[in-house]
Amino acid sequence: MSMKADGGSCLYSIxxxxxxxxxxxxxxxIGILVAVLLVAAVAAAAAHFFGSGLVRxxxxxxxxxxxxxxHVMILGVDExxxxxxxxxxxxxxxxxxxxxxxxxxxxxxxxxVAIEGAGYDxxxxxxxxxxxxxxxxxxxxxxxxxxxxxxxIDVHAFERIIDALDGxxxxxxxxxxxxxxxxxxxxxVIDIYPGMQHMTGxxxxxxxRYRDMxxxxxxxxxQQRFMRAVLQKVTSPEIFAKLPEIVSEVAKSVKTDLxxxxxxxxxxxxxxxxxxxxxxxxxPGNPAWFKGVSxxxxxxxxxxxxxxxxxxxxxxxxxxxxxxxxxAKYKADMPExxxxxxxxxxxxxxxxxxxxxxxxxxxxxxxxxxPTKPPAPSAVAVTVVNSxxxxxxxxxxxxxxxxxxxxxxxxxxxKRSDRAQTTITAxxxxxxxxxxxxxxxxxxxGGAKDEALxxxxxxxxxx
Length: 463
Prior knowledge:
Blueprint: E1 10-13, H1 20-23, H2 26-46, E2 70-78, E3 86-96, E4 101-107, E5 112-115, E6 119-122, H3 125-143, E7 149-154, H4 158-164, E8 168-172, E9 176-180, E10 188-192, E11 195-199, H5 201-209, H6 216-234, H7 243-253, E12 254-256, H8 260-268, H9 273-276, E13 279-282, E14 285-290, E15 293-298, H10 300-311, H11 317-332, E16 339-340, E17 350-351, H12 362-365, E18 381-386, H13 393-403, E19 407-413, E20 423-426, E21 441-445, E22 451-456
Parallel strand pairs: 1-21, 2-7, 4-13, 18-19, 18-22, 20-21
Antiparallel strand pairs: 2-3, 3-4, 5-6, 7-12, 8-11, 9-10, 13-17, 14-15, 14-16, 20-22
Region (Disordered): 339-379
Domain Cell envelope-related transcriptional attenuator: 86-235
Family: Belongs to the LytR/CpsA/Psr (LCP) family.
């Protein structure tokens, strides 16, 4: 991410955040997606030791189904102590063992769906209500496709698996710097320089978590680079000596109803990614808001058309009629008050090969924004967090801001004293009000337009 100095001491790091509370976990979701593909690649490296048939286990009565395709629900779950956990990533892998092909369909976690016993809610709530079984049932109803198997992945295992590989080599395409003070782990700082680098698990996840103005397009390209690096590593001859350690880490991170032979057979197909590319699409739909909560409203007919295409069957007859009927019911069940941000359904499909992958979704990803003026400082409530370890720094910064007309909501002491740089995060044009601060800082865009967060780092020098 490029940063430039304004007239004063602050750097401006653009952070399109929308609702911060809705986005603070988005980077972890990217990490889960990559972890899923990584697990596939690791198992593919060991696949030559085993052989097994992979067969459909679920009857497809009244659902879209081809002759040989297997559908696997892949669920990335963030489980914590005293917490039932939540699904942060949900994908469907459609595998054809006869043709040796595979495709991925990603379901946004905010997708509004009907959940048995709970009414309409976001699809990631299904896991909290009834675990993977209810998630499976909910997904089958949405897609009209039977799920034959499931794979549940622990999000916290990503770094351990990369480290078990002794790291990977990635040619970083540009300078990357990013801060997210709302990250669940006490704050996220990404600081990566361009060029060929050997990355540990920690650094690799920073690379795939990085976000810039390219949005989904940029993330897809970084995932491509990451996948190529991982596949190159796990298919190299020297990796076989490390297989016991790698398989051990994978085993601790994955729950599935695939037996060992089935999983190896399923994941063996993923090795073709290295040659043919992986067809990866996102469920089409529109972003919407209802009572302050964001949702993804799926285009049900188009989703089911995609499912039929992946299964290799025509989307016609009873399947098309069921889709139209369910879409009509879904629309009729929507309460009044939904606000849609886009008039046309968005699609983010891409085949993850080549530098131009995902470019077709670029126009859909760009938001049309009305030019607006920043509010007056007196309309902005500022929270000051002193994470510098310097006594009195919080009160001093609060006084500076008060003198400029801002309203100080609170002055707090941060949990950490190792934050290197001072950051100011404010929503929309509000961030413009903080140019020219008399202390070094990085400006980031995020949050509500009438709020701001000042997080003081070790670079602060007390007056």
